[in-house]
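Hey, I was hoping to borrow your eyes for a little while. I've been puzzling over a protein and I'd love to understand its fold better. The fold is given in discrete form, as structure tokens running alongside the sequence. I'd be grateful if you could look everything over and explain what you see. No rush at all, and the record is pasted right below.
>
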Amino acid sequence: MHFFKGLSPRAIGIAAAVITVGIWTAFIVIARASAQGSLTPYDIAFARIVGASVVLLPLGWWLVRRDRAAGLATASSFFGLSPLGLRVTALCGLFGGFGYALLAYAGFFYAPAAHASVLMPGSLPLWTTLLALLVLGTRITPARMIGLACIVGGDLLVGGASLLQAFDGGEVWKGDLLFMCAAFSWASYSVLARRHGLDAVRATTAITVFALFSYLPFYALLLGLGVIQSHLASAPWSELLFQFAFQGLGSVVISGMTFVRMIEYFGPVRSTMITALVPGLSALGAVIFLGEPLYWNLLAGLVLVTVGITFGVRKTA
């Protein structure tokens, strides 16, 4: 990522964290607004993957051929479009590309975006901590435990009331479960990226290539069987172009690369603790941009999450 060139590792890590949190926050706010739009969640997942592929597939093709021309014995897969070997591409792509997109967007069929803003980034530190302990042997220090407790408490303050409505009946719990599974899927990808020491550009390109080759046939099959509907043909061009640009270029290309750079500096556990800011910030963004009411629990939850992150990201944690 050439725009980070010349910066210190610490500056790169902080810049990557700010960009990632900013885009993830915008994603939740836009998801709330998009719920009133023309596209279905599966259509938006399609826009996310295809929009990213327009940029990253040519990049992957170029990286593979550049390495070969330089005589580097680097692995590649998927017809030379992924700059990583088949096993790593499939593993990371399954969790960070196909699995995350399918689970996250399917959740919007049952639960509102407010639930996603709490459960996806909110549960991410917990999943990542457990996976890092099992896969990487990362120690859970007392300071990190305090940080996790504060983050969970803050996220529950932000979205607890809306989550409790799931017990009133209906199918909201299905969406909540899908959002939790989406967070687990992304946590798995973040731990795998650290375990294999993946480069940000190559990792993001590889998961996009895998998502393209796996999600699009699945999406077409569901459409053909009549299981889901698509509104791509009837949606306004302005909405389509916006979703392709933001979901593809913003949510995948830019934040995908900055997330991996953040992992390189902070590690997977501390990185996902930083992203726990997203529920509070997205709720605040909904107040500012969507006119949603401002409640005391939002501010209190944001403060508690911030305190938890302060404990969790310290070098001694």
In short: The CA atoms of residues 146 and 189 lie 25 Å apart. The chain has a mean pLDDT of 85. The chain has one domain: 2-312.
